[in-house]
Amino acid sequence: MLFWVTGVIAYVIAVFHRQSLGVASLEAAARLGIGPSGLSLLAMLQLLFYAGMQVPVGVLVDRLGSKRMLVIGAAVMTCGELVFAFSSGLLPGAAGRALIGCGDAMTFISVIRLVSLHFPARRNPVMVQLTGIIGQLGALASAVPLIHSLNAYGWTPTFLGAAGLGVAAVVLLLAVLRDSRPAGAAGQAPGLRAAWAEPGTRLGMWTHAATQCSAAAFLLLWGYPFLVQAQGLDPSTAGVLLSALTLCGMACGPVLGYLAGRFPFHRSWLVLTVIGTTAGAWTAVLAWPGRAPLWLLAVLVVALSANGPGSMIGFDYARTFNPADRIGAASGIVNGGGFVASMSVIALVGVALDLHGGTGLDAFRWAFAVQYPFWLLGVVQVLRYRTITRRLLAARAS
């Protein structure tokens, strides 16, 4: 438990670093001399480095262990914040955010591996859900406190303070965490090929992709303009709905984690239920004549709140169907698949809005319709790999 708490603290600090640009966007534009496209470039570059590092980090965490990777990740993010603190142009600012994306990529998978090695299988789903929930404290810490610091102390002292949190994470990890590598793991070749060949890994990847993409696109970029510009809500009401999505997700996580641990053979039904309720809620909102009533938008938010916790079941599949010496590689595949799906939905919604001439209600209806192929493909692949894994388990049992 002590090792898990230490890893979670490092993850909270990583989420703080990840979210720090969002609340400093106006100050960043003024200091770096960039406009909205430049800000978008900074955010996308950070996310692209995060995505590109998933599989390599998964392989490395199996070879080096969680402690080393968490320390390296915290140190890299600290360097990123230092570069960002002294940046005065687009290129150094982009370099800082790229470093933060790389270090961030090393953190969650390393903590997931700690959970897999140190907790019994039945408790694993709940602990993974709790890891994700507690990590959201980093997002909260990057909001009001960071805004206050920027207003009170300015750019460089604020991000030097953020770098100080990274130093604290490195010291804590070195002092407390003790890593254990699975027996026989030393000297083995990376398990990436074996992890990909395991049908359970691909079941987890498609689970993560199909359940995460809608809420991720809604929270990261398109939810606020949809609620304000298309649905006509005032900004404060839209903010309440977005906050409610996060809070409902935090409440939903332990429930889904308990059910996944209590009924492991029926995890796919939980996944299909999350996809079905999400698609149903979106269908009701998009098909509503005119603007949807507030109660229906609240139903949509509640349905979306299960997406994040539902996607965590993908990591449970990775743990179930892979030995301990390739948990990192399998988790990297799962996480990378979900990220690719989320970024694809975000990009396609933007393309569809451009094609339909703006951000009006009709344009958003067509734009959010791009989600249906992702849900359909996800359901087909979940059912496909569920059948394959069940046959494989039956063959192994016999």
From TrEMBL:
Gene3D superfamilies: MFS general substrate transporter like domains. Its main location: membrane. It is a multi-pass membrane protein. PROSITE patterns: MFS. InterPro entries: MFS (IPR011701), MFS_dom (IPR020846), MFS_Efflux_Transporters (IPR050189), MFS_trans_sf (IPR036259). Pfam families: MFS_1. The keyword Manganese does not apply. It is found in: Cell membrane. Keywords: Cell membrane, Membrane, Transmembrane, Transmembrane helix. The chain crosses the membrane at residues 38-61, 68-88, 94-115, 127-147, 159-177, 203-224, 236-257, 269-288, 294-315, 327-351, 363-383. Residues 1-390 form the Major facilitator superfamily (MFS) profile domain. This is MFS transporter. It comes from Planomonospora parontospora subsp. parontospora.
